[in-house]
Design goal:
The protein is α+β, with helices and mostly antiparallel strands. It has helices spanning 26-39, 43-56, 63-78, and strands spanning 9-15, 18-24. A two-stranded antiparallel ribbon has the order 1-2. The radius of gyration is 12 Å and the shape is globular.
Length: 79
Amino acid sequence: MSTPYHPPVKRSVEIAGHKTSISLEPLFWDLLKQAAQAEGVPLNALVARIDVERIAAETPPGLASAIRLWLADRLASEA
């Protein structure tokens, strides 16, 4: 990708047996795919895990926001 400034791209994922659409910028889709690969799990499984953590939060954000926050936290912990 030549620039990180790109509008969100909507993709379907399956969580707990049902499909849902998530809109993320391509940079976040790439980071999410890398995280799933690094953890040795399918992308849907990682999104489902993030969703469970999100729902358990005191004030749950939307799923796309939760994914971005999860990725930021992951990158910060690697630094």
